[in-house]
Structure formats: structure tokens, C-alpha cells
Specification:
The complex is a heterotrimer of chains A (306), B (283) and C (232). Chain A has 306 residues and is of the alpha+beta class. Chain A is 25% helix and 32% strand. The two termini of chain A are 37 Å apart. Chain B is an alpha/beta fold. In chain B, strands 1, 2, 3, 4, 5, 8, 9, 10, 11 and 14 form a 10-stranded mixed sheet that branches. In chain B, strands 6-7 form a two-stranded antiparallel sheet. Chain C has 232 residues and is an all-alpha fold. Chain C has one domain (19-186): MetI-like (MetI-like fold, Orthogonal Bundle). Helices cover 76% and strands 0% of the residues of chain C. The longest helix of chain C has 34 residues, at 20-53. Classes of the chains: A alpha+beta (306), B alpha/beta (283), C mainly alpha (232). Chains in contact: A-C, B-C. The B-C interface holds B 2-3, 5-6, 9-10, 13-14, 16-21, 24, 30, 35, 39, 59-62, 74-77, 179-180, 182-183, 185-186, 204-205, 209-210, 213, 239, 241 and C 6, 27-28, 30-32, 34-35, 86-88, 92-93, 95, 97-101, 104, 179-182, 184, 194, 196-200, 202, 217-218, 220-222, 224-225.
Chain lengths: 306, 283, 232
């Protein structure tokens, strides 16, 4: 089970403003996923939904293959911990903050102290154990937030602009810390504007614009739009395209979302077969989106067998 | 350390708070009476004697006569002890009280500034004195609060023939303040005006207060100024939960030899204020 | 002016002579308002949380009502409740009228709007992300609420002080519902009113000074919990 999250027809509406509108989204475990997009594109909302802090107006969410109904959200929260751009530190010492998630689970004092100190060592904040947490610097509070999330037993870290409030000097070591956590097996999803961070850390990307996903993992982008009566396209991919295989979701298909079977014909050619839903017209405008502005050229289009 | 003391203090309040509402162990009855009765100090002497003799405790609610009677009508008390025979008779007639026991009387006095602006000193008739005050338009402060004192005052105005409207003489010299006796006397002293007061309240302010009032008794002794007190147990037929047994015991004790004696012997600043009516010769 | 000096002396005398009656009056006042404040906090805090963090229709109206009720005259509250707990009222058989319990009840209704509005202000002012951070770390609804309360404790203590103050200083409810029964339901404020009515100004002010002193000690104690020291 490598699937971490699956979102189906998830949308978030505030008043009459559509903040998020996702037909479908699939996120894999492990590694560092970048959530990109301009301000207001819905990144923070998506992070909060993935953290089970906000309930989408509609849609279904699956976490590690299990559907999470709105009522059940609370149980999943500590598995996917959200950390805002300026992490919120509770009044009290750093130690108090890191012990907090352990305390609310009812873990006895000695055990939690030990664990908290371990985590603080891991993130490199051992000297600041007694320091008042709200007074920590940007970089320090990011580290503190990570330690605290780990104390909560997080399997997923949802970080909103983790380097934005950190001065340049500290950014490097923070980035390194995040990378090492990913290596330990954590799934990390971070929203960021920081180019350097993007290059250094982000392994896969999702791009949002006006609440919609315009680029995601496991998807194809067609140059422009193509109107053709076909349910099977052979596409020529550029050399740097990742290997695609198996089933994948077609995103932002102008009329309907359908699943497509992708078969790699050879290193650079894939055949995309779309299953027609009953009664759909053959002619359709194809619009597929793929991770990193990769362009595919249509080599052939074939109508279904009669 | 400070936090510890604070917690201790708060805990102390918590603990004591629990006791403040504790129910009284002995038998208790609630009595409504007038503020002037309470202010006279008689109850502070009378009630302990009653409790000593019977073991029944009396909780005193002091308010204006109207409110005190109202409490009896509503069944919020077990016995009423007021001084307004007309309203008391009605109370019994309407079935709210069992029987009116004649207990005692004190009297009212017309008080005013020693300078006596209306020139009524020594007047024998209270009604006449009132008429003169009205004719000369000298300032008069009335309680105006539907109390027994107020009712008596209105009755005398009626006797005096002074034109009235809505239970009050017409004229800017007549000030109806809606207050208790104490406050009314204070205002009268300040304004050098006349007022009708029960003797007890006057004595308390003249001989008992730190700063004695400047007022003096201008007119006294007229029978019209007598103020009879009655005690009436509330009727259990109207309000079944009334403690009629102890309430009646209270009434009967007041008119008993012992009760009447305590009443007669009660002195306010060396003066007798209450005259027993059930056994007039009690001393 | 000599009234104040005499009153001060009288107050000292009352306190140190251990006058039973005076101490009883003090504790009736404190006790009644204590229970009223406790009840108001127990009910008021959940209400203000709901108002701060939940959306529901009628929220605006509810806030308007509570805001308005903050300035309701004590006599009005006293009268309203009198109708209910008088023998003739619906709750007559409970025998509440003219007892300290009735005073507590009346003051409860008096204080509740205050607690709700002050707490709402305190909580609303706190960044919502405190609540969200607590939740994301695995806190239950209750635990997250406690975090919010802890972070707003300064304003909360102020709210409790204000609420207690409103209760301990009022006369209308205590008089109408308590009846000012000596040794039973007489509070500091009703005792003061009585003394004033009797013309005993010195005594009235003396009691007032004692009331102020008690409030001072109480608020000092409560403020000990406001400090933002960096300890746990």
C-alpha cells in the first residue's frame, strides 16, 4: 500500500467563493511532495484538509486506503500534523511544548520527558530545552514544531512555507533536517515559494491555481487542446519524462473525468486508452496535465473498435 | 508561595460558601414585617425571648407594609406582623390570614425643625396641624411608599379636609419620596420640613444615632396618631405549606403575658415605645 | 469628610472585634456570589466557545442578547425571578425565595451574560491557530479548549474578576430574592442598604469599606493565576 492520500471530487466553498476544487488527487507515501502555486491558490486549505483540520464542503478522502468520514477526522489528526508558516508555540518552555502531544495521550511524566529530550536532540535544540517557546527564533520554532509533530506520532508532515520565516543562514540546516526526516520514512508535503527549497528538497510536485490542480503526479499534459474522435491516443513523451505505467486518472478532461490505462510502448512512447462511459460522444477535447510542464505530442489517435 | 496562599484563600471561601446556605436545624418560620418595626429594635429583644421559650426561630423579612402583606398573600411567609388595621382586616376577610391578634400599639408623632415654620407646636389635633401645614404651604416630606406610616399619614390628611389628588395633597410643598422612615427623616431634617414618623424611628435617630437628628416632636398624643400592630398567621387553606403550628404559636406568644411584658419593658434610649394591647396592664 | 474617618475606624473595629454578625454577612456575600460565578463559568465557557468556534444560524442574535443583558438592572432580574420562585410561581414548591440559594440563582443570571461576552472576547482575540495546533497534535475537543483557555488566561481571570465584582456589588437581586434576613440571607450590600435606610451612614460606609477590602484580597488572589511566567 503505497497510496497515502486519495481525494475524490473534493471541494471547499466559503460563502460563494470556491477555494478548492479537486476532481481527483492521489498522493504517494514517503518522500517530499511540493505543493506549489501562487497565494490564494488553495494550498493552505488543501494542507488543512489533508491534516484533517478542515472538512471539505464535499468529497471523499482516503488516508492510507481507508476512507475518512468527517466524523472520524479527529482520530487521524495526529498522524498528519500541520505546521503553519509561523509555528504556534504554547506559552511555556520548549520542553513543555514538545511534551504536550505526549501529555495529552496520557503518557507518564518520566517517559515523556525522555522522549521529548530525544526529539529535541534530533532536531538540534537541546540547549534551548528550558527556553520560553514563544520567544524562539524563526528557525528554532520550525525545528521545535518538527520535534513536536514527531512527538505526536506524525507519519505525515504538512508544512506551510517552512523556510519563509527563517533567515538565510539557518535555512540550510533546516532544509537538511527536513531531508533527513524524509529519509527516515516520513511523508512530507510542503507548500512553498522558495525556489532553493524546491530544487533541493522537492521530489514530486503538485501545482495549484485558483483552487484547481494544474499539475500533479502521475498525469500527462497535452500541448494545447486536441479535439478528436478517439478513445486511444499514442503519445510521444520527451526524454526527461518519468516512466508512466499502469492506471492513472485523467485530470481536467473537459467533459468527464475518466480513468485511463497507460502502457509504455517504449522509452518515449505511451499508449493512453480511455474507457468510454456509456453514451459519451467520441469526439472530445483532450486536456491532460502532467507534473513538470512536460509536453507530449500526439502520434496517433484511434477510434474504438465498433 | 503566593499562588499557594491564593489557592488556600480561595479554598477557604469555597468551604465557607458551603455553610452559608446551610439549613437551620431548629424549627423556623418566616415573618414579614415593616422596616420601621425592625428599625425600632424591638424584634432584637422580642424574638430571642420567643426562641428561648419555644425553640422556634423566626426569620425576619422587613419591607414596606404593602410588600409585607403581599408576601402573606403570596404565601412566601408564615406570619405577617404589620400595623395597618384596615388592610389587615381585609387580609383576613379575603381568607389569606387566619386571625388578627391585637398585639400592641405605638404612636406616630409629627416631627419638624425646632423653628416650627408652620407654628403648630402643641397642637392637640393632628388633623388640624396638617391643615395648618397645608394652608401655610410649609414643606412636608411623605414616605409615599404605601407603608403603614404612609397609610396613617393619608388618613390624617383625609381627616384634615385638605384637597387631595391620588392620595396626596396638592401643592409643591408636599414631597413624596418613596423611601423608608430613616431616609425620610434625614431628608426632613435637611430640608427643615415636617414629617410624620413612628415614635420608635424618631427616637432611634434622636437618641441613638452618632449624629442625632435636628428634628423635634412638634405634635403628639392625639388618638388619631395611634398605630396599632396586629400579627396574623397566614392561612394554610390558601397555602398548604405554611407552618401554621409554629406561626400560631408565635402569634399566641405575642399576646401572652410573657410576650406582652417583654413588649412593655422594651425601651429605646430609655423611652418606652410600644404599649401592649392584648393585656394593657402588662408592665 | 469626617464620615470617612469615622467609618474607617468603625470598619476596623468591626473586623477586629470579630463581630459574628459582620463575619456572617461577609461570608453570605462571598458564598452566594461564589456559587453564582461558578455556575456562570461552567455554563458560560461552553457557550462562548460555541459562539467563537462554531457557525450556526442565530449566532448574531444570541450575541446581541447577551450583550444587552450585561446591562440589565439588577432589580429587573430580581423581579423576573421573584415571579418564578415565589410560592405562587412555577418553582414555588422548591422553597427558594428568601434564601441565599435564591440570591445565588439571581446573581447567576446576572453574571452569565458578562462571563459569556468577556470570555468570547478573550477567546476570539486569540489566534485561531492555537486551537488548530492543539487539534493537529492530537488533542481532543476538550483538550484543545483547555489550551485556548490557558493561552487566554490573562483575559479570562479579568473576566472572572469582573463577573464576581458584578455579583458581590449588587443589591437588587440580593434584596428582592434574599429578603435581607438577619443572620441568614443578609449580604454586605443589603446590610449597607439597611444601615443607610436607618440613617446609620457611618455603619453603611464601614461595611462598604469591608466589602472593598474583601474584593481587593480576592482579586489579588485571582491575579496570581494571570502571570505569564515561562514555567509549565
Amino acid at each position: 500500500m503505497t497510496e497515502l492520500y486519495r481525494l475524490e471530487k473534493v471541494s471547499q466553498v466559503f460563502g460563494d467563493r470556491v477555494v478548492l476544487d479537486i476532481e481527483s488527487l492521489q498522493l504517494e507515501k514517503r518522500g517530499i511532495l511540493g505543493l506549489l502555486g501562487p497565494n490564494g491558490s488553495g494550498k493552505t486549505t488543501l494542507l488543512k484538509i489533508l491534516a484533517f483540520l478542515e472538512r471539505p464542503t464535499q468529497g471523499r478522502i482516503f488516508f492510507q486506503g481507508q476512507e475518512v468520514a468527517p466524523r472520524e477526522m479527529a482520530a487521524f489528526r495526529s498522524k498528519a500534523v500541520w505546521s503553519p508558516q509561523y509555528p504556534i508555540m504554547f506559552s511555556g518552555s520548549l520542553l513543555y511544548n514538545v511534551e504536550f502531544p505526549l501529555k495529552i495521550k496520557g503518557i507518564p511524566a518520566a517517559t515523556r520527558r525522555k522522549r521529548a529530550l530525544e526529539l529535541l536532540e534530533l532536531v538540534g535544540l537541546t540547549e534551548l530545552v528550558k527556553a520560553p517557546a514563544p520567544k524562539l527564533s524563526g528557525g528554532e520554532s520550525q525545528r521545535a514544531s518538527l520535534a513536536r509533530a514527531l512527538a505526536a506520532g506524525a507519519e505525515v508532515l504538512l508544512l506551510d512555507e517552512p523556510t519563509a520565516s527563517v533567515d538565510a543562514a539557518a535555512r540550510g540546516s533546516l532544509t537538511e533536517l527536513i531531508a533527513s526526516l524524509a529519509r527516515e520514512g516520513l511523508s512530507i508535503i510542503l507548500a512553498t515559494h522558495d525556489q532553493a527549497l524546491e530544487e533541493r528538497l522537492v521530489q514530486r510536485k503538485i501545482r495549484l491555481l485558483d483552487g484547481k490542480i494544474v499539475q500533479a503526479e502521475n498525469s500527462l499534459t497535452l500541448v494545447g487542446e486536441l479535439t478528436v474522435a478517439a478513445d486511444c491516443l499514442t503519445l510521444l513523451l520527451p526524454p526527461e519524462a518519468p516512466r508512466l505505467n499502469g492506471r492513472l486518472k485523467i485530470l481536467s478532461l473537459t467533459r468527464q473525468t475518466e480513468s485511463a490505462l497507460v502502457e509504455a510502448l517504449d522509452e518515449s512512447q505511451v499508449k493512453v486508452t480511455v474507457r468510454l462511459s456509456g453514451g459519451a460522444s467520441l469526439e472530445r477535447a483532450w486536456s491532460l496535465t502532467l507534473g513538470d510542464t512536460l509536453e507530449a505530442r500526439v502520434l496517433a489517435a484511434k477510434a474504438p473498435e465498433a | 508561595m503566593r499562588k499557594f496562599c491564593s489557592i488556600l484563600f480561595l479554598a477557604l471561601i469555597f468551604a465557607l460558601a458551603g455553610t452559608s446556605g446551610a439549613a437551620v436545624a431548629t424549627e423556623t418560620i418566616k415573618m414579614s414585617t415593616t422596616t420601621s418595626t425592625q428599625d425600632s429594635g424591638l424584634l432584637d429583644v422580642l424574638l430571642p425571648e420567643f426562641t428561648k421559650d419555644t425553640g422556634i426561630e423566626v426569620q425576619v423579612l422587613a419591607k414596606g407594609t404593602g410588600a409585607a402583606i403581599r408576601d402573606g398573600i403570596d404565601g412566601n411567609v408564615d406570619v405577617i406582623f404589620v400595623h395597618d388595621p384596615e388592610r389587615e382586616e381585609k387580609f383576613v376577610a379575603d381568607g389569606f390570614g387566619t386571625k388578627r391578634f391585637k398585639v400592641m400599639h405605638n404612636d406616630f408623632v409629627i416631627v419638624g425643625d425646632p423653628s416650627d415654620p408652620a407654628g403648630i407646636k402643641g397642637e392637640k389635633s393632628a388633623a388640624q396641624a396638617f391643615k395648618t401645614i397645608a394652608d401655610k404651604k410649609t414643606e412636608f416630606i411623605s414616605r409615599g411608599d404605601d407603608s403603614g406610616t404612609h397609610a396613617k399619614e393619608v388618613a390624617i390628611w383625609k381627616l384634615s379636609g385638605v384637597p387631595m389628588k391620588d392620595k396626596a395633597p396638592e401643592g409643591a410643598w408636599y414631597l413624596s419620596v418613596g423611601q423608608g422612615m430613616g431616609k425620610t427623616l434625614i431628608m426632613a431634617a435637611e430640608k427643615k420640613a415636617y414629617a410624620l414618623s413612628d415614635r420608635g424611628s424618631y427616637i432611634a435617630q434622636k437618641f441613638g444615632a452618632e449624629n442625632p437628628t435636628s428634628l423635634e416632636i412638634i405634635v403628639e398624643g392625639d388618638e388619631a396618631l395611634f398605630n396599632p400592630y396586629g400579627v396574623i398567621p397566614v392561612n394554610p387553606a390558601k397555602h398548604p405549606q405554611v407552618k401554621i403550628g409554629p406561626a400560631t404559636k408565635f402569634a399566641e406568644w405575642l399576646v401572652s403575658a410573657k410576650g406582652q411584658q417583654v413588649i412593655a419593658q422594651y425601651k429605646l434610649k430609655g423611652q418606652q415605645v410600644f404599649y401592649p394591647d392584648a393585656i394593657p396592664t402588662a408592665k | 469628610m469626617s464620615v470617612f474617618w469615622e467609618s474607617f475606624l468603625a470598619a476596623m473595629n468591626l473586623i477586629f472585634s470579630g463581630d459574628q454578625e459582620v463575619w456572617k454577612i461577609v461570608f453570605v456575600s462571598l458564598g452566594c456570589t461564589f456559587w453564582a460565578s461558578l455556575g456562570a463559568c461552567l455554563l458560560g465557557l461552553p457557550i462562548s466557545f460555541a459562539l467563537a468556534y462554531r457557525e450556526f444560524s442565530g449566532k448574531r442574535i444570541l450575541i446581541l442578547i447577551f450583550n444587552t443583558l450585561q446591562s440589565v438592572p439588577t432589580v429587573v432580574v430580581g423581579l423576573f425571578l421573584y415571579v418564578f420562585i415565589s410560592r405562587r410561581g412555577i418553582f414555588g414548591p422548591l422553597d427558594l425565595l428568601y434564601t441565599p440559594k435564591a440570591i445565588s440563582l439571581g446573581q447567576f443570571f446576572l453574571i452569565l451574560p458578562l462571563v459569556v461576552m468577556f470570555t468570547l472576547a478573550a477567546i476570539s482575540r486569540l489566534d485561531r491557530r492555537y486551537h488548530q495546533t492543539a487539534l493537529t497534535l492530537g488533542a481532543s475537543g476538550w483538550q484543545a479548549a483547555l489550551v485556548v483557555l490557558r493561552e487566554s488566561r490573562f483575559a479570562l481571570v479579568a473576566a472572572v474578576c469582573a463577573a464576581f465584582g458584578r455579583g458581590v456589588a449588587e443589591v437588587g437581586v440580593s434584596m428582592m430574592l434574599g429578603g435581607n434576613i438577619k443572620g441568614f440571607s443578609r449580604t454586605m450590600t443589603t446590610a449597607m442598604a439597611l444601615e443607610y435606610d436607618k440613617g446609620e451612614f457611618v455603619m453603611a460606609v464601614a461595611l462598604g469599606l469591608i466589602l472593598l477590602l474583601v474584593s481587593l484580597i480576592l482579586n489579588f488572589s485571582l491575579s496570581q493565576f494571570q502571570s505569564h511566567r515561562g514555567e509549565q
